[in-house]
Amino acid sequence: MFNTAFLVVLYNKTLADSNTLRAIAQADVDLAGGKLVIWNNGPAGLTERDVTAFQAKGLEVAIVETIGNISLAGIYDQFMQNFPAERYVLLDHDSSIDREYLSGVARVQADELGVPLIHAAGAIRYPTRAGIPCGPQFGRVFDDTHVVNSIGSGLVLGQGLVETLRQQYGQPFDERFFLYGVDTTFFRRIRASLLTSHIRLIPGFEHSLSKLEAESEALRRFRKKERSYDLGLTLRFYERFPTNILKFAKVSVGHVKRKLLGIPTNIQYPDYVRAVFGGRHYRNSAR
Length: 287
Prior knowledge:
The chain is α/β, with parallel strands linked by helices. The chain folds into 2 domains: 4-210, Alpha-Beta Complex (Spore Coat Polysaccharide Biosynthesis Protein SpsA, Chain A), CATH 3.90.550.10; 214-278, no CATH class. It has 9 helices and 11 strands. The chain has helices at residues 19-26, 52-55, 72-82, 99-106, 159-169, 182-192, 217-238, 243-261, 269-278, and strands at 4-10, 34-40, 60-65, 87-92, 113-120, 123-126, 128-129, 132-133, 148-149, 156-158, 199-206. Strands 1, 2, 3, 4, 5, 6, 10 and 11 form an 8-stranded mixed beta sheet that branches. Strands 8-7-9 form a 3-stranded antiparallel beta sheet. α1 (19-26) links the parallel β1 (4-10) and β2. α7 runs parallel beside α9.
């Protein structure tokens, strides 16, 4: 078993394009006894596979390719299933990790969830408690009544915490979600399992956030569709009666009002309805 297994997910990127991989290769920390899994999720295979810089850090390296752009939740679950380790680190391609963050990773214990402070545009953005970004504090600072959320990149899952979630849900992450909703439903599972008190805040890093950046119209349409399915599937699988009925009505009425007033909507209502009543993400081919 490895002491730490690092996952770096690439999509439409080469190894050289990844700020995260570059930071790992240049890290001035002891990574011996660790595993680095570079997971290329498409849309084409990698043409460059030189991993000597990571091996020089003492890391054993594996490259996994799923060219079909599979569920991010599925990638996370397969990674933790296939590469046993004392702790698991989830990273995307452009996380500006540093020595302080990596030192924080090493302090996460078996029963803990390490959550880094995520900075963007000059401020801490995640994690949030009751929707408010947390301050610059480290260690165990939450109890099981707190509502905590964060993004997936940078999370550190202790092996014991992973096993607890497996016993309750089969896998830590909900594979009914493909991109949007993967992180928020994970934190819902943490709360439902009374594991919020096991969150350890660790030093974080700068991370780009789509909501703070200008994007093309095509990318905005894609995010709107993903957001619609996230909202609908979350309502179906994570809300109970009568809350689910009330929230469905609220979203429906709000959508109609915006349409009548000519105000842009943040969801595609037909996709939202398909998610609620169909119970399946549009990219999920399982019947």
